[in-house]
Amino acid sequence: MSKQRIVWAAVVALAFTGVVLVSWPRAEDVPMPVVQPVNPDYFISDCLVEPIKKEMRRLSDGREAECYVITTKSVPTDHPIGPWAPKHVTDGEDKGGIWIKDGHVYNVSGEFVAHLDELYDDPQWNLVREDGSIRVTDTKEAFDLAARPNVDPRYNNYAVECPVDVVEWKSNYNVYIIPVNPVYRSKATDFHRVGNGHGPVGVAFNGVKYDPPAPIHMIIKAHTIAPFDHSGGHVNPHAGYHYHAATGNTKEIEQTDGHAPLIGYALDGFGIYAHLDIDGKKPIDLDECSGHFDNVRGYHYHASAAGDNQIIGAFRGIAGSASVVEPK
């Protein structure tokens, strides 16, 4: 058996409300020569609801670990949100966001919307009314019924966006539980296996969620599109504003060696770096989780290209959790 597969035992005794907690590593844990811990100072202070704190929390595999508790606002402070959908066929690219198909990123102008039948080779696409206006969800009811995988048939052939007067989600908080020191595992963990198939996979430094792939195959089945803005984000009724793509509009931590910049953390504590390095080169030898090693950062992820509908592919470490809460 290789040394990496040997079960190593470490007892961590911490005083916590008078209880001694003991953490035993699992057989899948693999000690790494380089581990880059989470740096809470990278988060934008204006995005925080309260100072980041450390607490002993339970991770997705049931173990206790020292974690950062990061409570953030739902609206980013480093870029505006929107626009998403143009309202008329004459609207230019500045009136809409982006859409993705087969690895390509398209600017959502009025002309783009008018020719979705050609893009998808399907004559049933028809979001444009006779007067040239585009069907866009403009009420909370319409948004709630259309912004879901099983789109209500009344909102087939609509562009789905959150109306500007729907503000409830903007007052909510995002709470992230992320291990202080990530633990590399020999086995990848699918998001669904940690009860996270529809929850975030990580967080940007502005406090906004990185989400799993958007259910685009279900969305277009109803002849709808739910555009992202040029920062890669959009809104749904439950998660609020979140990213499905990393487009370079959020805070980045530059690397002194020309490596792609750090753009956030996955819920397992490993860093998420941009797709391209300073020379515009793509990462190589990525595993099924979208990660690999180097001697500076240890194991880390790279966000997929914006057109791939994926931030990372799976968790390599042991994930914490994330939740949306209403302010008290």
Characterise this structure.
This protein is globular. Strand 10 and strand 11 form a beta hairpin. The strands form four sheets. An eight-stranded mixed beta sheet has the order 10-11-9-8-12-13-15-14, with no helix packed on it. Helix content is 7%, strand content 21%. The chain has helices at residues 110-114, 116-119, 140-146, 216-221; strands at 15-16, 19-20, 53-58, 64-73, 98-101, 104-107, 173-179, 202-204, 209-210, 233-236, 240-243, 262-266, 271-273, 291-294, 298-302, 321-325. Mean pLDDT is 89; it is low at 1-24. The protein has 328 residues and is mainly beta. The chain contains four helices and 16 strands. The longest helix is centred in the middle third of the chain and has 7 residues, at 140-146.
Structural topology:
Layout: E1 15-16, E2 19-20, E3 53-58, E4 64-73, E5 98-101, E6 104-107, H1 110-114, H2 116-119, H3 140-146, E7 173-179, E8 202-204, E9 209-210, H4 216-221, E10 233-236, E11 240-243, E12 262-266, E13 271-273, E14 291-294, E15 298-302, E16 321-325
Parallel strand pairs: 9-11, 13-15
Antiparallel strand pairs: 1-2, 3-4, 4-7, 5-6, 7-16, 8-9, 8-12, 10-11, 12-13, 14-15
Shape: globular
- Rg, alpha carbons: 21 Å
**Tally of DSSP β-strands:** 16
Spatial sequence of strands, sheet with the most strands = 10-11-9-8-12-13-15-14
Give the biggest beta sheet: 8 strands, mixed
Summed over residues and divided by their number, the pLDDT gives a mean of: 89
The oligomerization state is single chain
> What is the count of helical runs?
4
Structural class: mainly beta
Which H/E pattern describes the elements? EEEEEEHHHEEEHEEEEEEE
Given as residue ranges, the uncertain stretches (5+ residues, pLDDT < 50) are: 1-24
